[in-house]
Records
---
Amino acid sequence: MARENKAKVNLSEVAKAAGVSKMTASRVLRNASGFSEETRQRVLREVERLGYVPNRIAAAFGSEQTSTIIGVSVPFLSSSLFGAVLDSTNGALAKFGYQTMIGAHENSSETEETWVKNILSWRPAGLILSAPRHSKATRDLLRNHGIPVAEIWNLNTSPIDLSVGFNHYDCGHEMALYILSKGYRRIGYVGADALAPGLGALRRKGFIAALEASNMTFASEEILSDRSSFYAGFYGTETILNRNRNLDCIYFQDDAMAIGGYFYCKSKDLRVPQDIAIAGWGSMEIASVLPQRLTTTVVSTQALGKAAAQSLVARIRGEPVDDVVISGTRLAPGATV
């Protein structure tokens, strides 16, 4: 079902609400001179209240232009998973004649809000956003602006516009059931999102729910105030095993951390999975060259990026498109559990 688009607020409306001419409002927004501070503040108050975003393209070319820009925002540009999504998305959009403007928000709602305000001033044709949560101001701004938006990575049943992703809670729940079915009972968790909880927190919740259904919980947890990385997984595994040497399995936030944990175990001559089992999430390419196939959840970043691009372009063109598109995942048993 197509979203009902609201008309964008224009400069004339801002000027009228502030009780000034359109020229004065324009000069205020360009930081020109020739008006009082009281006038400036009055115009800026109405800009904020009405959710007006200046049009940089119009300012540069003197008229509205048909945009071929798609803004894409992800948590981290350094992540190989998000890098693969960006590569797929960019390639698919290019085939439709669009180019991307990319940003990263590091799981900060405030940083994402600032990026959205800035990108909207370029009047993009649409946005692709990957974030565990949006600020109320961001959601209101996007809805008022009426721009096509595809939220990706996490499945959102009440999206701003479109949602293309998968259920992270279910991924964690499914992995827990598999690990329990293999007989493991002293299970630990290692993650790295204490500062800015991301979607790994949803997988953890799903995992815990499955444990609680069996009257269990994590025997020990180590959630680092750090980004996910090989080193974070190595260090986190060292920390949790020094604290609790009786663990028989560790579920990691993602594959990067699981791989780090795997090499820590190897450095201490711990047999995987005989002494300690290891499970991750995300199917990182580098996991394919480990001495043992990692037990993980496979996600298709290529399919996700392509589906997001196709859904967004269909919305831009006014073509029928599902509001929610589910991208499949698959548990890969591997050899580490």
---
Amino acid sequence: MKANLEDIAKAAGVSKMTVSRVLRGGTGFSDDTRDRVVKVAERLGYVPNKLAAAFGSYQASTLVGMCVPRLTSGLFAHVLDGVDRALSRLGYQLMIGANNHSTEEEEAWVRQIASWRPAGLILSGRNHTPATVDLLRQVAAPVVEIWELTTSPIDMSVGFSHYDCGAEMGQFLLRRGRRRAGYVGALARADVMGQARLEGFKAVLAQAGHPLVDQEVLMDMPGFYAGYYGLETLLARGSDPDVVYFHNDEMAVGGLAYAQAKAIRVPEDLGIAGWGGMEAASILPKRLTTTVVPTTAIGKAAAEALVARLKGEPGQEVTVVPTRLVPGETG
């Protein structure tokens, strides 16, 4: 049940008009009254309705908010395209934000977008602050969590298992005869989905009796240069891996560039594998060993699931969109 001005007025012991003036930044009341009203509003989880403030009356929203890790991510650009195309076809508009792999930044974004009374929200990942979860329940709009599949979503989930992606790559590289695998990643533990891939990868290797020999996880954002100097740092330690699994394809391509610069033959001297399915990875002189993520399909499925819920149509709570391992020529 969402709190309204009357609820705040009753709890604070003031008039509804006073509450309205306080929340609009008006004057004509004491500091004590202002503080009391603000504290009550926060305690009740009140979210101001910017549409009502702008137009004077409530209108059925066609706005859908979507929060992604980074606006510069090539993979999420395709997800956004899938969402936007599907929503436009169904009569809805998309508002985009980024959380920079921070649950606190996601919470701030949700708080801001909630004030516009969106028709629904699409969030990346399944990890949120308790305050975000509480706020989503107060907003009472459909929510789709994408990218990292969860069997117990806030509302709906569309995606795949990152742990399984890492495990599948580990099994594949073992079948290719690799026995001394290393890992180069980024964002440390800020990217829980990348961490899940690493955990799946490590688990399979350990079960086979060939545990990960070394890893270099940078604090930097994943990218070509991070992959280049990440591999340089890893190899400088002398752990002598026969294959390196990278956080994503961009980093893997950076690793390939380093290998070429140092006359390291791929895959003869060192195998390299990525994740994500970056378009350029398929047209390299040697096709990259990677996992392709159906980004556009995930976006389309998320948008359609959300709109179906808005229309009261039956739908799945959890939608699995499978990934595909590409053997390539570098692993």
---
Amino acid sequence: MSVWSVEIDAGTAKKIQKLDRETQRLILSYINRHLRNSPDPRASGKALTGPLRGLWRYRIGDYRLLAEIRDDELVIVAVDIGHRSAIYSRSR
């Protein structure tokens, strides 16, 4: 079983810190359970298209985590997080 490492972009980490504690716990728990310990992180995400092509979306409650998957390094880079109503227009 491959163990993926997850890197959280500085801007994304700052956005997570601004969220309430319960949402922070939910997001970090999701990252640990579904991304770090997954043999294939694509199984729990969805590939994005259009201007966000190359990124993967993960649904965490009302929030969306956008990430880049680097297969050659076994690294998932969290590049943005936000409420589902605004994340896609803001990340273009």
---
Amino acid sequence: MVDVSSKWFVRPQVKPEAKSRLFFFPYAGGAPAVFTKWCADLPSHIEGVAVHYPGRGSRFNEPVINDMSRMVADLAQNIQPLLDKPFALFGHSLGGLIAFELARHLRAQHLPMPNHLFVSACGAPHLPDPNPKIHHLPDNEFMNELDKLNGIPAELNNPEAMSLLLPIVRADFQLVENYEYKPDEPFDFPILAFGALNDPRVNRERIEAWSIHTKAKFVSQFFPGNHFFINETKEDILKRIIHETTGEQRGIHAT
């Protein structure tokens, strides 16, 4: 019997008969609701699970985590009841890095491993990030940097909401900006890296460099758009993920 009580995971549609699970890791400042529609559009044999980081949504009263080691250790401890069937990981931007490090942690602990890793708008972790650090900037400057990514949530236009949400986004940027890559063996499962043609933060070279992290198949795919291209390409990305994991050419639910 799977324990579904963990506050770390949101399952919009529990599918006991599903053959596999797909975990979605949100970007900086993102909550599980970002991927609710993605989960709903999966076929019946794949259950979507959205990761819920502390400090947002129903976990708003919990302190945020700005350290990668602690983040993946807590995730690994809580995800185990949901690893009772084949699974894959998908992460956007910060979420891609967390998914990558979680897979490494699972391997180090001899726990079940994903069948696939899907990352989007996330540079290969072994390459130094050429972008200047921004998590320490004053609010106005920090907001300006977010605006360059088209990544300012609409809620931040409200001063009261900004005072609540901006510290969460800052902490997430601190997590990724203080991340230190440590060399390790490449994975045995395939990696697919999605990128945008006009992403000001992650260029083609940093997307394609993910190839060194797998001994299996590596594929990169690029879409028009900026850092948040997934907002316009959800259907295409899901179709590709479904095809890579099950061999199906079609199968997402158009809703």
